[in-house]
Amino acid sequence: MGRPRDEYYWDQVTKEGNDGWLCKRCSKRFKGGVSRIKAHLGNETGRGISLCSMAGSSNQVEAPNELDSLQGLAHSNEVVGSGNIGFGTHIKKMHELVNKLSSWEAELKDGWQWLEYCGKKCEREELNDWLKEAGGLKEEALEIIESLHQHALQDPLKKTDDFKSKLFYIKYKMPFCLNKESVDRNFIQMRDLLRDDNVFFIGVCGMGGVGKTWLVTHFKNQIRSKKSFNFENVYWVTVSQDFSILKLQNSIAKRIGKLIMGRPKNPIWNQVTIIAESEKERKWLCNRCRKQYAGGATRINEHLGITKGKGNITLCPRRHDLLANEGVNNSMLPGSSNQMEAPNEFGLNNGVLPASSNQLEDSNGLDSLTGFELADPMNSYHEKAEGHRNMISACFDGPIDQNDVAGPSNMVEGLPHSDEVLEGGSSGFETDIEDEVLESGSSGFETDIEDEVLEELRELVDELTGWEEEVKEELQWLEYCGKKKREREEADDWLKKAEDFKKEARGIIDSFPRDALQDLQMKTDNLRCRLNLLENATPVCCDDDIHMDAYFTKMRKLLRNDNVFFISVCGMGGVGKTWLVTHFRNQIRRNKSFNFENVFWVTVSQDFSILKLQNSIAKRIGEKLDDDDEITDRAEILSSALEKIDRSVLILDDVWNYIDLQKIGIPLRINGIKLILTSRLKHVFRQMDCPTSNVIEMEPLSVEEQEWELFLLNLGCDGRPASLSGEVENTVKSVVKMCEGLPLGITVMARLMKGVNDDINIWKHALSKLEDSSMGEDMEEEVIKVLKRSYDQLADKTIQNCFLQHALYSEVSDEVFIMNLVDEGLIQSTSSLEKIFVQGKAIVAKLNSHSLIDCLWDPDSSDLHMHGLLREMASHIMKGRFMLRCRKRLDNIPEMQEWTPQLEKVSLMGNCIEEIPEGISPECPQLSTLNFSINMIRYIPDCFFYRIKALTLLDLSHNEELTSLPNSLSSLRCLKSLLLKGCRSLESVPPLGNLQELSRLVISGTSIKEVPDGLEVLTKLRWLDLSQNRKLVCVEWSVIFGLTNVQYLNLEKTSITGEVGIVHGMMSRLEYFVGSFQVAKHLADFVENILNRDGGLKCYHIGFRAWDLFWEPDFTGRKRKLITVEDFEGFEFLLPSDLDQLVIRNIEQWSGDLCGAFSFKAPSSLREIIVWRWPKLERLCCMSGDCSFCQHLQNLQSLELYKLERLDAIWSEEDEFIGLPNLSQLKISYCDRIERLMGAAALAKFPKLESIEVDSCLSMKEVFATGMSEDDPDLTITFPNSFKRLHLSELPELVSVCDSIIVSESPPDVTACFCRQLRQSHFRHKQSPSASESNIKIRN
Questions:
Q1: 1200-1215 residue pLDDT tens
Q2: N or C: which end of the chain has fewer CB within 10 A?
Q3: Residue of 1112, 1047, 1058 lying closest to 1086 (CA atoms)
Q4: Are 574 and 742 in contact, with CB atoms under 8 Å apart?
């Protein structure tokens, strides 16, 4: 029960029974180990034990954390104080010296036993002489201590100093057995590590046969043979090369005595004797009635009457008698109050456990017994025991010595000290405040006020406690993440202030009713003010801008929301889903602030079945299901069992399929049960109706600093980050970057590189292997295969091939990716572009739902991203057929031996390749795809394409230094797609006439001055993009006229010249067009022959003398049909019949209005007009019923006017004013001459108007003019029922919105910013004419 060096303390007591002892000094009986003896004798604090009345001090003496060094003790000049305190100090120091001597004895004996184990000779006689002398010195020390206890020494200082001198002398004579330069150093190191309480992990390594097992065997025997190492048990498991997790788990379970089918050993087993056991069942004999039964801890509980069972086992007839014989209070007997005696092995003094607390048996098979609830009615005294066998709270039957109760640290927070409670003699520690008030004679009115004040105080404490819990949780999260937070000191300081605040508040509560009501109110007000300051100073430990902290914050919020029953965590493999949920599982178990009784964890995995999942859940909650029952019956049993469990969390980890909760038997919205799911498959959550707001979508780490912290933490030991020299740091950071923020990849890589630290050659070798896509066996096993499960889950082979096709790009627009799928034959090419893109986006959604691709940065972005380790997984799948080296920092193309004949696809995207050397000609007859995009290539030799004739896709986009292409390109007769986007230095392209299979040609953002030769004969061309070529001024219509199959034609910043004639069937498949015309006649021909033909185009943006045409193609959404006009000179043609948007801008010379510019009717399809920068425009249009143009604007929905310097009226509001019946939005900006927006009468002509914005119109005085006297009391203006918003900004002359009262169906949202002269206007609700309110939000 103690260490050899603690023999002195055992000499002071007489052992009684297994764990009892009698103090030889005060003759009192206690239980426990040497720590409680030390505390009893005054050499340690705490332990819940009274101080020996014969000790040298009446108070407990605080034991130092470490023994003072002998040097310090020897030269101590402390003056002996008078009284008991001085003797107590000398007693303590003598104990320390004796302990020191005992430790030397133990070390010497350990060394001697080691030498015997090694077969070495040592001076046994010299050793025995020293040990004999040390024993005599210990006896002398005990005599001195006894004299000090009896205060019998006249000069204790001299006596202790003499003893110190003798101690130094014997230390000097101590025989030296071990040689630190030999194998003995291994013994010394192992011994020191085993005795270091801060060491939890010890490794022994060396070549085969060097003696690793031999060394460990010695210490195994030492631990078993004596208690000097203070370990209760030692377990030995041989792992070997045929390692598996399952096998190792079973081996450990066997060693620690856990049945394969059972749970961790429960204290209830102490009440029975096991007589037979197998893998399937355990038979036991009741220690009370001596009857035999079979089963587990549940049946023992039922037999002893602790829990109510199913009636298939008899109650023990002697359960009452045996407990009574052991001294248990009758009121605590099983069967009367369902309580039983706690096992002695937990160090309880006749303690009792409530059977209903479920603390005797862990239903999860995961938790250990961490604390017992006291049954004593006098005190609800708890003490946390974080897994420490000597720290479990004790409860006592009968009188309790005040000194047996530990200090304030063991008290329930906010309650009086235990001695105050006991002295009070009350049946409960809390006194009814109302009773005290009535007894004191206070009036009922005062009592109510006092109750309110006290309740407010309690609420302040509760509120602060909630903040404390959040701060502590955040600190625990940071520790779990391995982060070092600078704010830790600030948080600790804040927590101390919060604790002081709570103590003060409780002191005020405790002082009631002694304090007057006035004082109580004043103190409460003061505390409330201080609480506000404390709230404002609450430290922010978690930064929601950091992904991991944001996930923590959201999960905590969802767990505490009583209206949330279903939480989902999704993300790609290895991103940390299980890691996040594990943290909260542990938090729920430890932290009662989450207010859950149980947490059950079930791993589902890919081999899911309803039967298997039901069995797993039943096992976790302690329910038994019959495999022969129907699934629905099993579900009913399971649901009923879960409904009986209050406030629980059920975690289903690693879900791969839709789970019908009703079929399984999982009830939601009952008894506070919450369900947490983790999965890589986002569609699973949607199918299970998990609200989007309850989904936590995890992403890889996006900040380099976070990746680096995680890597160093896992590279280090014992929770301390590794330290690297500056020489290797840059190389190591490059290794970390290869993991692209995926926690699984980072942690595995760090583990594989442990111990390397500053060996730069090993780091460089590791980086080189990663750059060559050679991950190594461990990375492939632990990372790649984990990620591949997502790929395997794609049952459709076509979708799998789409994923592999995407692996050619680290990031790519959905437009390029989908058209690549068309080239590969994965999407049918004969469809319309709309159908192609609908199918393509469905494929993208499928891959995204399986966490295999992601939208880049912005969920609304059309760019798609693939994680680097997923690309490595694709390379692993297609090993030998794919060469994927995206973003590997390559300066040159791979060596020729890597360009094997079996290669089918090569991607070297995103590297730093500048040149392909002359003479390089890969022989790859099966190579179909070559991606050289985003490099720095300046030159490609002519011979490079000689032996890759099967090439169908060549992507050279974004090689900005590339000036020309080799002529051998013209011989790639199988080529279907040639992509040359963003090659800004490219000036020429070889003839393309021989590329008859070419269906997609992109030459965009280059410096070419003319289209490539042979373009006009490429009859299979379906996609032609010649946009953004700043030097390509025009394209002859005759060149593109013969492209009969073209569906997409983009000539942005390029004009079409020549007569636009058309022959039946030519360009009949054209769907999307962007281009400009300089000649009005050419545009008119195009409108008549192309746009206004049957069917027309699905989408177009045409410019007339306009070069800059903004174009964002949306193949599946709204099909915009837009014309931009920058000059009306010679503009004599009809607008397209299906035009929906008209943009007029930069009209410098024209001085008329729209009615004059378009002297013909507008198309009825027109929905939007935008007019920008028309300096000479004075009026937009007449809006008269006689105007053919204005008559056909009846479907116009949006009108935007910008920078019209001379505009003084939007339209003429005469008697014939017809208005715009469908206009919903009107926006006017920088029109400095306009003084009013419109009149009251005109407003009635806009019945569907919803929003008006007026911005920076310097002369605007009134928004709606009435033209009537301001003195008219009945002056009103009525808004349309649809009107919702009026926004006014930077109108320095604006005086009022309207001089009359505005009547509306509901008051609109009116805001005015920087309108300094504006006065309030009044709005009246139609339903209550008498009500008038001012509701303009004015911000200046």
A1: 999 998 888 888 777 6
A2: C
A3: 1058
A4: yes
The count of C-alpha atoms lying within 13 angstroms of the C-alpha of 77, restricted to the half-sphere facing its C-beta, is 0
Enumerate residues 6+ apart whose C-beta is below 8 A from 74. 164, 165, 168
Contact between residue 531 and residue 460 where contact means Cβ atoms under 8 Å apart = yes
Give 844-860 pLDDT, tens digit per residue.
999 999 999 876 445 55
Residue predicted with more confidence, 220 or 767: 767
The CA distance from 758 to 536, in Å, is 46
The CA distance from 1257 to 1291, in Å, is 6
What tokens appear for 462 in the block? 């509760």
**Would you say the pTM of this structure is higher than 0.85?**
no
**How far, in Å, CA of 456 to CA of 521, rounded?**
10
Q: CA-CA distances (angstroms) from residue 724 to 588, 754, 1057? A: 37, 12, 66
Q: DSSP readout, 40-76?
A: HTTSS--TT-PPPTTSS-SSPPPPPSSPPPHHHHHT-
What tokens were used for 440?
């004191």
Give one word for 18, left, alpha or beta, with left for phi > 0 and alpha for psi -120 to 50: alpha
Going by C-alpha positions, the residue among 377, 365, 288 that lies closest to residue 329 is 377
* Per-residue model confidence as pLDDT tens digits over 520-551: 666 666 666 766 666 555 555 555 445 577 88
Q: Of 392, 528, 386, 512, which is closest to residue 463 (Cα–Cα)?
A: 528
For the ranges 52-56, 1119-1123, 1189-1193, the maximum mean pLDDT occurs at 1119-1123
Strands (E), 1126-1208: 1141-1145, 1168-1172, 1179-1181, 1198-1202
Cβ pair 1135, 1161 in contact under 8 A: no
CA distance 709 to 721: 8
What are phi and psi for residue 292, nearest 5 degrees? Answer: -100, 140
Cβ density class 344-365: b for 16+ within 10 Å, e for less: bebbbbbbbbbbeeebbbbbbe
Confidence of residue 93 (pLDDT cuts 50, 70, 90): confident
Q: Three-state DSSP class for 359? A: coil
CA 325-327-332 angle, 5° bins? 105
Q: How far is CA 812 from CA 603, 818, 877, 955, in A?
A: 36, 10, 21, 12
Q: What are phi and psi of 643, to 5 degrees?
A: -65, -25
List the one residue out of 972, 993, 989, 877 whose CA is nearest residue 927: 972
Q: Name the H helices within 996-1103.
A: 1037-1040, 1080-1086
**Measured between alpha carbons, how far is 1331 from 1333 in angstroms, rounded to an integer?**
7
Angle at 370 between CA 470 and CA 316, to 5 degrees: 140
Alpha-helical (H) ranges within 484-609 are 488-511, 517-536, 547-559, 577-590
Find the helix or strand (DSSP H, E) in which 655 lies: strand 648-655
Q: Could you tell me if 1189 and 1161 are in contact, meaning their C-beta atoms sit under 8 angstroms apart?
A: yes
- What is the rounded CA–CA span in Å between residue 636 and residue 643? 10
Q: What is the distance between the alpha carbons of residues 607 and 657, in angstroms, rounded to a whole number? A: 9
Which range (450-454, 922-926, 985-989) has the least confidence?
A: 450-454
Phi and psi, residue 846, nearest 5°: -65, -45
Burial 242-271 (b: 16+ CB within 10 A, else e): eeeeeeeeeeeeeeeebbeebbbebbbbbb
| Cβ-count burial 485-504 (b if 16+ within 10 Å, e if not) | bebeeebeebbeebeebbee
617, 638 Cβ separation under 8 angstroms: yes
Contact 288/333 with Cβ under 8 angstroms? Answer: no
H-state helical runs in 1198-1271:
1240-1243
Structure-token pair, residue 463 = 């509120």
Phi/psi for 1278 (5° steps) reads: -105, 125
Contact 1229, 1257 (CB under 8 A): yes
Strand pairing partners for 607?
none
